[in-house]
Amino acid sequence: MERALALAKAAALAGDVPVGAVVVDAAGRIIGEGANRREITHDPTAHAEVVALREAAASLASWNLEGCTLVVTLEPCVMCAGAVLQSRVSRLVFGAWDDKAGAAGSVYDVVRDRRLPYRAEVVGGLREAEASALLRDFFDARR
User: Fold this and answer.
1) What is the mean pLDDT of each run of 10 residues along the chain (143 residues)?
2) pTM of the model
3) Can you say whether the dihedral through the CA atoms of 41, 44, 47, 50 is positive or negative?
4) Which of 33, 49, 55, 75 is flagged as catalytic?
5) 49 is catalytic
């Protein structure tokens, strides 16, 4: 989570919503990382999770990330929750809950929906205060 928080801070400095993500393999090595890049790339899918998952898949030369963990500073949205399932990530760990658009237990629970063919373990609230403060400070400064 330390690296994800650092990536989130970098996203804020670049003018994007401060969300950072890393993918770690079963041994705990970072194999992919990302920060929100929507403003820089003008890409609506350039969320931190998607960027990190793409980098991890390239690192392993496989779309299948089973056995890996995605660590992200904010609860994933519906798009990112879908990417978690499509990549077969085994575990999702996140910091701040997103009570407006979260899809891993707050508004929706896409990641653990029993109707879907794949589910991931979810651990929410890791270093929640720090992750929430980054988001709150970013949006307060914009108002």
Assistant:
1) 98 97 98 97 98 98 98 98 98 98 98 96 98 97 86
2) 0.96
3) negative
4) 49
5) yes
